[in-house]
Amino acid sequence: MADPVLQIENLSKSFDALKATDDVSLDLRPGEIHALIGPNGAGKTTLMHQISGALKPDAGSIRFLGKDILPLGIAARARLGLGRTFQISSLIPEFSALRNVMLAVQARQGSSFRFLRNVMHDRTLVAGAEEALQRVGLLARASVSAAELSHGERRQLEIAIAIALGARAFLLDEPMAGMGPEGSRALTGFLDGLRSEAPILLVEHDMDAVFALADRVSVLVYGRIIASGSVAEIRADPAVREAYLGDEG
Amino acid sequence: MTRERSLTFVLLAVLLALPFAAQALGHPFYTTLATRMAILALAAVGLNIALGLGGLVSFGHAAFFGIGGYAAGIVATHAMNAEPLLGLEIPASMPVVWLFAALAAGIVAAVTGSISLRTSGVYFIMITLAFAQMIFYFAISWKAYGGEDGLSIAMRNGFPGLNTAVPRDLFLVAFGLLLAGLLAFWRIRVSRFGAALQAARQNELRVAAVGIEPFPIRLVAFVLSAVITAVAGAMFAELNRFASPSMLAWPMSGELIVLIILGGTGRLAGPVAGAMLYVMLEYWLGGFTERWQLFLGLMLLAVVLFARGGVVGLVAGKPGNG
Predict the structure, then answer these.
(1) Is residue A148 part of a domain?
(2) Residue A86 domain-assigned?
(3) I need a surface site. Which of A109, B123, B152, B171 has the fewest CB within 10 A?
(4) Are residues A129 and A201 in the same domain?
(5) Does position B20 have pLDDT exceeding 70, yes or no?
(6) What predicted TM-score, i.e. pTM, was given to this entire model?
(7) Do residue A118 and residue A223 come from a single domain?
């Protein structure tokens, strides 16, 4: 089996008495979608924060492409190729969709210490950004400011940014949240193809999407992974059914 | 051409015409007012990089303005007394002064910025104020360079090909510097660096999440901003023939912020519009009453409540998002 791209071992994080992440181990292998599901407050976003560098774990290790990334900050981890989207869209509101993506292309190309050339005349920046927008189906809205995009379009823009920064692994935090059924279906199809480019750690509440996409599913409850396996195994797991899926599974 | 750029050209044309009109109409004093406008505008162009583009509300830019002023005063004094400065025979030349001003302010900004940029919001405002006040107290206790009395410039430093003792020539130097400052601001704003700086103002987390560290971007912006304001300070001392400790004091920092807010934060023409308005008010209202700043206060209130974009925002509308 190929080496995992992302490997998390025995990760723990507490906020006072609350164990938000309790001895979590999981990995992400090349070409797969690994879905992380769990009820609200299970600690999914807290885990994503620790992987992306926004939060420091109390114990455990995170290796990305064979490298210990715990000493690195958010920006350094992004430069290594961790492409993260946020549960609540986090964009540059006054910039157009195009310029939001151009910032990621600029970061990928290296230096931001260039002072004279107009970015809008820089073909490599503009073309790279347009390509990413095209892929997520947002090219027609390229000149609209992020603040004026619809909720669903902002979710798409976040993914375009993650693609444009040259992600070697995607961390997608509820990309379907707030999208209509049609948007969810379209995005499901898109993510299905995206996994061949880089593996995806997918936090998602939309079970139709999870069951359609995931190669593996891990279930997080109260900061602990209670089950991990294929979609069929997770659907059949009695502990998961009790803790999370209820009767609908 | 965008309306913003047209407005910039119109304002600069008016400013450039002012000394010539003044001469023709027999009011040579207006040349000094126009020079004052150009210099304050340049100082505010500098601050506008940090404050307007980067959202870094520095309440300590008086320090850089004053450092520039003292650079002019010190070079002029040494040249006058034929004393070497740092072991060198320094010519009484403005470009040399600007070099000293830029170096000194750049170093101070790099040191104070690398500490103060670790904070944000009201803490950043307070820590930049604190550093500026430290420099103010240092200057007034430095007896060799005038202490509390400041430093007189008996004869202005020269500029090749011009006679800086002539008001119109001095104006042309200041105006040329303002053009250079505006050009620098304009290029920075549309560049990669400017994109990262403006993005970091709006959403620091997003900038980090694409792989750009906000801190070094802001530090370089802070240093560039300080350098431009310091060159303006040097010209201010030349104009007044006096490097005053009040250039370093906190009301000066506030004045520069007021100029930018009046004119339009982050806008190319903002500092120019703000400085022209400010000097006009100072002169005309100051002729009626010593308490002219009361009217300035009312105006600032009106801008903050009803016209957030300042004068430029009123005339040219919102900035484009590219």
Answers:
(1) yes
(2) no
(3) B123
(4) no
(5) yes
(6) 0.94
(7) no
CA distance B237 to B240: 5
User: Which of B191, B217, B220 lies closest to A116 in CB terms?
Assistant: B191
Q: Alpha-carbon distance A220 to A126, whole Å? A: 40
Q: B213: which chain A residues are within 8 Å (Cβ-Cβ)?
A: 73, 75-76
Is A107 within 8 Å of B210 when comparing Cβ atoms?
Answer: yes
Count of structural domains within chain A: 2
* pLDDT tens, position by position, B66-84: 999 999 999 999 999 988 8
- pLDDT tens digits for range B177-197: 999 999 999 999 999 999 999
CB of B220 less than 8 A from some CB of A = yes
Long-range contacts of A68-76 (CB under 8 A, 24+ apart): A73/B208, A73/B213, A74/B205, A74/B208, A74/B209, A75/B207, A75/B208, A75/B209, A75/B210, A75/B211, A75/B212, A75/B213, A75/B214, A76/B211, A76/B213
Residues A76, A1 share a domain: yes
pLDDT tens, B131-144? 999 999 999 999 98
Does A55 touch chain B if contact means CB atoms closer than 8 Å?
no
User: What is the pLDDT, as a whole number, of residue B320?
Assistant: 64
Structure confidence at residue A245 (pLDDT): 61
Question: Do residue A132 and residue A155 come from a single domain?
Answer: yes
Residue B210 in 3-state DSSP? coil
- Nearest chain B alpha carbon to A90: B206
The angle, 0 to 180 degrees and rounded to 10, between the axes of the packed helices B167-190 and B192-202 is 70
For residue B211, list chain A residues with Cβ-Cβ distance below 8 A. Answer: 75-76, 78-79, 104, 107-108, 165
pLDDT of residue A246: 58
Backbone angles phi, psi at A116, to 5 degrees: -110, -40
Q: Does any CB of chain A come closer than 8 Å to the CB of residue B183?
A: no
User: pLDDT by residue (tens digit) across B75-119?
Assistant: 999 999 988 888 888 899 999 999 999 999 999 999 999 999 999
Instruction: Count contacts between A and B (CB, < 8 Å).
Output: 113
Quick check: A1 contacting B, CB < 8 Å? no
Among A126, A147, A163, where does a domain finish? Answer: A163
Kindly list the distances between the CA atom of residue B258 and the CA atoms of B44, B253, B255, in Å, as whole numbers in the listed order. 9, 9, 5
On whether the CB atoms of residues B153 and B72 are closer than 8 A, the answer is yes
Could you tell me if A121 and A173 lie in one domain? Answer: no
Query: With an 8 Å Cβ cutoff, is A107 touching chain B?
Result: yes
Residues of A in contact with B212 (CB under 8 A): 75, 103, 106-107, 112
Domain spans of chain B, in order of start:
3-316
Identity of the residue in A90, A119, A145 whose CB atom sits nearest the CB atom of B190? A119
A9 and A54 in a single domain? The answer is yes
Mean pLDDT, consecutive 10-residue segments, chain A of 249 residues? 90 93 96 94 94 96 97 97 93 97 95 92 96 96 96 94 96 90 92 96 93 96 94 90 63
CA distances from B42 to B48, B272, B316 (A): 10, 8, 21
**Structural domain containing residue A56:** 1-81+167-249
Together in a domain, A62 and A173: yes
